[in-house]
Amino acid sequence: MIADPLVIIGAGAWGTALANAAAQAGRTVTLVARDPEHAATIEATRENLRFLPGALLHAGITVTADLGAAAVARALLLVVPAQALREVARSLAPRLAPGTPVVICAKGIERTSGRFMSDIVAEELPAAVPLVLSGPSFAEDVVRGLPTAVVLACGQEPVARSLAVALASPTFRIYHGTDVRGVEIGGAAKNVLAIACGIVMGCGLGESARAAMVARGFAELTRFARALGARPETLMGLSGLGDLVLTCGSAKSRNFAFGEALGRGVPLAEAAGGKLAEGAFTAAALVAMAGRHGVEMPISEAVAAVVAGEMSVDEAIGALLNRPIRAEHEII
Ligand SMILES: NC(=O)c1ccc[n+]([C@@H]2O[C@H](COP(=O)([O-])OP(=O)(O)OC[C@H]3O[C@@H](n4cnc5c(N)ncnc54)[C@H](O)[C@@H]3O)[C@@H](O)[C@H]2O)c1
Ligand SMILES: O=P(O)(O)OC[C@H](O)CO
């Protein structure tokens, strides 16, 4: 596939890291920032001091704030927060050539509509070919060239395969697949579960409790995914188990760090520390969708109640610990 020029919308931490990875893979990259002043500063200093300090931008990247750059894109990456994805997709609609592959890199569910990211792209950019990129990957690791593996899913298998080849490098390995729903569920739900793990650690409940949270979180994630028609093996892969292990195990995760702060008693309004904790926005939408499909997600429900201010951390932990004893694996 010809993926040049590759246009990346969103010059935050992940957009910047992906721009560097793609440029290193040989792509011609345009990185589009929201704010013209920020774009000019990155272009001039070759560093994104605001979102990813300490990393030099590859020489093959042009930075702009002009969304019009999307008009010539042979492939486009959407790397803005999940709650902003619709607004951004809508503004791209008149600019994008029909059939352009659009790779969704945000991990979340839209809270106002309860829609997945791929549904939003289908609604706002109906002529585009939607793909989802997800998996365990910290921007800081990717930009340092540390080995990372992610998955790229598209309903059209040849598009996923050829774009994976175009964007991958020896240290940024991109597997491909066709289970778009499974891959986006993995990315969205793990953020909610990482908040739960952060709360556990912030409260000092210990490593055993964290491991239990990961395993039971994975159980509810796979129950949910199965009910929504995703393939269970997808969730056993990079977007699902892989990302759960990363984000539930590292204070570098903004979702985990948010939960940890809540567990330490930091007030809700201050716990994210000004950083993007996607799970806080996704939790209620995830739980509502699970309810509509008759799926129990007690950990996600507890997180949703805590981030909505409806339950204290202690009440949420008490509710989880006092659930009835049951068989580990449900037959559904
Ligand atoms: N940072 C990571 O390691 C990482 C890894 C994988 C996936 N992701 C996902 O990528 C998405 C973006 O995360 P990030 O780390 O880049 O966040 P970030 O906070 O570092 O950057 C967000 C970017 O989006 C822009 N933005 C915010 N609201 C906008 C709006 N309404 N319109 C246009 N642009 C807007 C901001 O200006 C900024 O450039 C999230 O869904 C996140 O879960 C992040
Ligand atoms: O910092 P987080 O919690 O948004 O996690 C970043 C990535 O999603 C990890 O795969």
Automatic annotation (TrEMBL):
Gene3D superfamilies: N-(1-d-carboxylethyl)-l-norvaline Dehydrogenase, domain 2, NAD(P)-binding Rossmann-like Domain. Residues 179-317 form the Glycerol-3-phosphate dehydrogenase NAD-dependent C-terminal domain. It is an enzyme of class 1 (oxidoreductase). GO terms for cellular component: cytosol. NAD(+) binds at G10, A11, G12, A13, W14, G15, A139, R254, K275. It is found in: Cytoplasm. Substrate binds at K107, R254, N255. The active site is at K190. Sn-glycerol 3-phosphate binds at K107, G135, S137, K190, D243, S253, R254, N255. InterPro entries: 6-PGluconate_DH-like_C_sf, 6PGD_dom2, G3P_DH_NAD-dep, G3P_DH_NAD-dep_C, G3P_DH_NAD-dep_N, NAD(P)-bd_dom_sf. It comes from the Bacteria. Keywords: Cytoplasm, Lipid biosynthesis, Lipid metabolism, NAD, NADP, Nucleotide-binding, Oxidoreductase, Phospholipid biosynthesis, Phospholipid metabolism. Residues 7-157 form the Glycerol-3-phosphate dehydrogenase NAD-dependent N-terminal domain. Its EC number is 1.1.1.94. NADPH binds at W14, R34, K107, A139, R254, L276, E278. Pfam families: NAD_Gly3P_dh_C, NAD_Gly3P_dh_N. The keyword Lipid biosynthesis applies. GO terms for molecular function: glycerol-3-phosphate dehydrogenase [NAD(P)+] activity; NAD binding. The keyword NAD applies. Catalyzes the reduction of the glycolytic intermediate dihydroxyacetone phosphate (DHAP) to sn-glycerol 3-phosphate (G3P), the key precursor for phospholipid synthesis. Belongs to the NAD-dependent glycerol-3-phosphate dehydrogenase family. This is Glycerol-3-phosphate dehydrogenase [NAD(P)+]. It comes from Chelatococcus composti.
